[in-house]
User: Which sequence fits this backbone?
């Protein structure tokens, strides 16, 4: 993957307000989080639930992929999602990696937002979900 190519990671412009609300609402699990951290969480949630929605319409540039250092955990999560979804060859092109992850994040942000508005205690609710996922994986693994 060439580091000299500026590859932007985008979110749907129509969902920009969701990112703002989740990072600025004191009751949100993502309060004061960076947009990049929320994006990666949304991509992971979308991937887990196998929900992928390519962005249609206007896009909002979130960050260039080149901003990540090679040892940044977010970069490894992004690459892992892309490889799991599309195979190892996706790593040959940062634009392909970004497109795969954007689609999962585009769907995942809706799931995270819905959980935020539906839950009285978002942290406890998501912790319970995580424990359930871990238990399912240990039973099936």
Assistant:
């Amino acid at each position: 993957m060439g580091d000299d190519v500026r590859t932007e990671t985008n979110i749907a412009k129509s969902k920009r307000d969701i990112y703002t609300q989740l990072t600025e609402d004191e009751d949100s699990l993502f309060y004061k989080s960076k947009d990049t951290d929320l994006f990666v969480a949304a991509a992971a949630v979308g991937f887990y639930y196998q929900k992928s929605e390519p962005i249609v319409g206007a896009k909002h540039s979130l960050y260039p992929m080149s901003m990540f250092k090679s040892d940044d955990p977010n970069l490894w999560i992004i690459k892992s999602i892309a490889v799991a979804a599309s195979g190892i060859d996706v790593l040959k092109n940062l634009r392909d990696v970004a497109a795969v992850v954007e689609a999962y994040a585009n769907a995942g942000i809706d799931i995270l937002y819905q959980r935020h508005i539906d839950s009285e205690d978002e942290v406890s609710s998501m912790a319970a979900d995580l424990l359930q996922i871990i238990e399912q994986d240990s039973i099936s693994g």
